[in-house]
Amino acid sequence: MSLTHMKEQIRPRIGITMRIELETNRFYLARYYSEAVEAAGGLPVHIPLIPRPDFIRGVISNLDGVLLPGSDSDMDPQRYGQEPHPQLGHVHPEKDETDLLTLAEIESRAMPLFAICFGVQALNVSRGGTLIQDIVSQHPNAIKHEQGAPRDRHSHRVRLLEDSIIGQLAGSDSAPDNSHHHQAIETLGRELVATAWAPDGIVEAVEDPRGDRFGMGVQWHPELGWEHDQLSQALFDRFIVEARVYAERQNRVREVASAGN
């Protein structure tokens, strides 16, 4: 079945966790995540930062996939057993807890996941991994990972694992990316495989190797400039295809259960 034909079928519901602006107490989210999901064939659903297990469970039960986006905050290092580094940025407990509760629900349901920047860091922490709290001061010979404006330009290349999903999508052993982060994965969490690296060795992408689910995270921002970047489009397209397959499988389970009643 062609990708175009599959896009014309079910439009899977994709949850996207929001951010919080502490000064005004507003939940918000940059438009690019939702636009990229919609263009790939999904229905974006914003998830407010209400860190209650029953609320998150109720929201996730009505979704077919989750996109964990970037954030202007850092994950609290207490969540991975470290003390705060002097260059640690702002910590937003509502963001940390909501994303971690969401990840727990995704794990229990084997639901498709696409994690971006802060999202891949949260994924790693949820699996027992740790983070580099500040690349510049903690990683020797680091390249510049906070490129600034324009945010969609490619500022460095990443080396791709050849037989990984992202390597297959790129059709190459390397790809250019944009870079907007001062933290990164230090030690990998459970059930995660590194699939891309910056020239300085920083992990730039991970995948879940288990065959019963789709899980991918990238440290860069494919939602920026996705309209003219082929790999960014391919990443969103693959995620939506996986979410569509999940939705179809869940529909079949519900039909069987209904027929048995």
Task: Please report the total strand number as a whole number.
Answer: 13
Q: SSE order in H/E notation?
A: HEEEHEHEHEHEHEHEEEEEH
Query: How far do the termini sit from each other?
Result: 33 Å
How much of the sequence lies in strands comes to 15-25%
Task: Give the % helix.
Answer: 25-40%
Return the average pLDDT rounded to an integer: 94
- Protein structure class: alpha/beta
Description:
This protein has a 9-stranded mixed beta sheet with strand order 4-1-5-6-13-12-11-8-9, with helices on both faces. The two termini are 33 Å apart. The chain is α/β, with parallel strands linked by helices. It is built from 8 helices and 13 strands. The radius of gyration is 18 Å and the shape is globular. The model has no long low-confidence stretch (mean pLDDT 94). 34% of the residues lie in helices and 20% in strands. It has helices spanning 3-7, 31-39, 53-60, 93-109, 118-126, 135-138, 165-170, 230-260; strands at residues 13-17, 19-21, 26-28, 43-47, 65-68, 113-116, 131-132, 156-160, 174-177, 184-185, 193-197, 203-207, 215-218.
In short:
By secondary structure, the chain is an alpha/beta fold.
What's the helix and strand layout?
Elements: H1 3-7, E1 13-17, E2 19-21, E3 26-28, H2 31-39, E4 43-47, H3 53-60, E5 65-68, H4 93-109, E6 113-116, H5 118-126, E7 131-132, H6 135-138, E8 156-160, H7 165-170, E9 174-177, E10 184-185, E11 193-197, E12 203-207, E13 215-218, H8 230-260
Parallel strand pairs: 1-4, 1-5, 5-6, 6-13
Antiparallel strand pairs: 2-3, 7-10, 8-9, 8-11, 11-12, 12-13
Helix pairs in contact: 3-4, 4-5
